[in-house]
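Researcher: Here's the sequence for the chain we discussed earlier.
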Amino acid sequence: MLTKSMKYTDNNSEIEILKIEVSRLKKELKKKKKYGLVWEEKPEEVIDMCKKKLPVLKEVKNKEIITDKNKPMNLLIEGDNYHALSVLNYTHAKKVDVIYIDPPYNTGNKDFIFNDRFVDKEDGYRHSKWLSFMEKRLKLAKNLLKDTGVIFISIDDNEMAQLKLLMDDKNKGLFGEENFVQNFMWLHGKGKKDRWSRTLQQYILCYAKNKNNLSSWSILNYVNYEFQNPDNDTRGSWFSGSISFSEERSNKHHLNYFEIKSPSGITWKRQWQRSKEEMTELINQKKIFFGIPPKYQSVPRIKIFPDDIDEQIPTNIIDNVETTRDAQKKLDALFDNRIFDYPKPISLIKHLVQLSSKENSIILDFMAGSGTTGHAVLELNKEDNGNRKFILCTNNENNNGNGYKIAEDICYPRIKKVIEGYKNVKGKQVAGLGGNIKYFKTDFVNYKEPTDENKIKLTTEATEMLCIKEGTFEPVCDKKDFKLFKNASHHTGIIWHTKAIQNFKKVIKDITGKINIYIFSLGDETFDEEFEDVKHKIKLSPIPEAILRVYRRIFK
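Model: Thanks. This is the structure I predict for it:
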């Protein structure tokens, strides 16, 4: 039988327990997000498999294209983009200048696959699945950007709001709203019409790795322009820029829709990029070019003199590139067949790349689809003699059931045609742009535990990853226990057995340049003492521990 004092003690204990629980809940609530995007995480099979298998890359040798050994080596990786990004987190951490992706828009019309199934409009977890999919890949992609790097993401209204909130969430390891650069609006054609309106734009969200590290952008940074003086302007040579929307894209109800007149009396009525007052002032200053006198028949354009260049800041409206329809026609003509729907225009990607990068930048597209980004980079390099490199990642799924596999039947053949040249639908030979590319497939090494046997397996499968990391693809020496590769700037050595160190040193004896050496170690040993006599020209790294450190961080 309980006494009064015992009951009081028990009640008192319960009160103390409740106080402790309330205190705990308060602390938990403080950790909870008070504002932002919340969704239900969905497990993904391609991610779960990495708990047992580690991704590596295997080269498909017969798909290598080399037209100039002095030009950069571009990469095409076939496989799930999560696995490709995992490998790139080792080979390209903080090396990429620009990322562009065109992800599935999640319209519910068989454009988004999650765990090998299409996500339709009736799926109650449609947005959660898309956000889970995007978050995991964007976190890996962020690690690849330089501190001065940027990412562009094409999207439409189906996931625009969700994507913006996701990108703003720094607590989840994403970019943070302070690194939001711009929401570019691409006027992609005649648009999609419904009962209420016609949608003319798609969006391209742009975020920086660190916005404070970005230099200012100018619309003239990217143009392969020449200053000329076709009308003998007394102020000297100038360059012309767009000042209007085309008649097709002009909005007749816009405030800036009005009429201007050329000196010869030709009228131009459309939507302008400046107000009526600004246009009047520019005409009075004779800064609008109407064409060569006396006819003045050209579409009006703004004259840009050298002193004006610093003022040419880009707007968030992209209307001076091709439309979706233009892009489709060009791709259909390239293959003489409809093999891929809704490709992005080459000129759109060129615009973004030129705006945000330099002539030796690395451009990544890990949702490469038909390969437009690679095509755009090759064109830019041809135009300005640049040395940009691209990395394309795409799966090899059947494209919308039409019988064509995305990587090997669409993306790779497109890049091959553009590099080597091809005959168009009229039978006319189109000259190749030149360039180099290597083709890799994602593969896996069974790795449940960090045993010595598993470490040896991973090391023997890591050759291609190490060559990609170093950019050294030309073989110099291929022995059973070690290999040596080179590029124009340095060599890469891979040693699988410590007993081969002395023979390896004999091979590198007369090499004067820098040599990065990867040596197998069950722990983290780099065997510095063995290389003491050549330490002035080498850098040692243990494998597979350097790779495993990256994978432990990703797959934790």
